[in-house]
Design goal:
By secondary structure, this protein is of the alpha+beta class. It has two domains: 3-44; 72-271, NADH Oxidase (3-Layer(aba) Sandwich), CATH 3.40.109. It is built from ten helices and eleven strands. The chain has helices at 3-27, 30-35, 37-44, 86-92, 106-117, 175-182, 187-191, 202-209, 213-235, 247-254, and strands spanning 72-74, 104-105, 119-123, 126-129, 140-146, 149-150, 155-160, 165-171, 194-201, 237-239, 261-271. The strands form three sheets. A seven-stranded antiparallel β-sheet has the order 1-8-7-5-9-11-10. Helix 1 (3-27) crosses helix 3 (37-44). The chain starts with a helix and ends with a strand.
């Protein structure tokens, strides 16, 4: 972003916060007015009968990111059934941080990606995704960090949902260890055979919903998280949602700018320990 654009951006934010002050004064304590920036954003993005926060409003970036390297790995067809009832999978769902020292298969990874963020249909030229999304704008992207996936070289990949394929961003071992360090040294991340990092392309949602789009994008990511939990449960695999990480380090690791696209979640996946 150019300096002039950044200044204009900050001025719009300041204006929105000034408009929120009367609400903040009525509904928050002195301590939270001084310290809680999340509450400030919440108040600044409220919809009232007399006001709707209409800035910033970026341009629409499209539904899909291109593959910058042009190197694609085709994924197997995702499973169409698992033999596990959907209600049973929801009832069994747990956060599992222990993984067997065995790889997962590329077909299993394919199924996890498809049922979390995959394109499950089309309505004319509008993609329909596995997760519910505000306005159908689909801001969530998925990145795979592979260490021990059968049929897949260790490395970092971006999931190309339109083609159900992986874009090779870089290859090499040890990336999960680095990811675990970025996730505040949570060792279980490094012990999984793979991890899926989810980001949000904020512009997709903000292009229609303005500043309130940040709320909606996070709700979308929550739907993706639960999809992956349920898909892992249906396959007899283990996963857990990790929301603690050094943001700028994870952005650099994934190759995103932390502004128009930023990480929201990391989910290691693997076989269940003892299974």
């Amino acid at each position: 972003m150019e300096p002039r654009e950044l200044v204009a951006h900050l001025r719009r934010l300041a204006s929105a916060l000034r408009g929120a002050l009367p609400l903040l004064e009525r509904g928050a304590s002195e301590a939270s007015r001084r310290l809680d920036v999340a509450a400030l954003y919440h108040y600044a993005s409220m919809i009232t009968r007399s006001a709707y926060v209409d800035q910033p409003r970026p341009s629409w970036p499209g539904f899909f990111k291109p593959c910058p390297t042009g190197r694609l790995v085709e994924l197997p067809e995702p499973a169409r059934a698992s033999g596990v009832d959907a209600l049973e999978a929801i009832r069994r769902r747990r956060s599992r941080r222990e993984y067997a020292a065995r790889p997962i298969g590329l077909a299993e990874l394919s199924t996890l990606l498809y049922y979390s963020v995959g394109v499950t249909g089309w309505e004319f030229d509008w993609p329909l995704r596995a997760y519910p999304s505000a306005g159908g704008l689909q801001p969530v992207e998925a990145y795979v960090v592979s260490e021990s996936v059968e049929g897949l070289e260790p490395g970092l990949y971006h999931y190309q949902a339109r083609d159900h394929a992986l874009c090779v961003l870089r290859t090499g071992s040890g990336l999960l260890r680095r990811l675990a360090d970025i996730c505040l040294a949570q060792e279980h991340v490094a012990e999984a055979p793979a991890a899926i990092a989810f980001t949000v392309v904020y512009q997709r949602t903000a292009s229609r919903y303005h500043a309130r789009g940040y709320r909606y994008a996070l709700l979308d990511a929550g739907g993706v998280m639960e999809n992956l939990y349920i898909a892992a449960e249906a396959l007899g695999l283990a996963t857990v949602a990790v929301g603690a990480f050094y943001d700028e380090e994870l952005c650099e690791f994934l190759g995103v700018d932390c502004y128009t696209e930023f990480p929201v979640l990391v989910m290691p996946v693997g076989r269940r320990a003892g299974g």
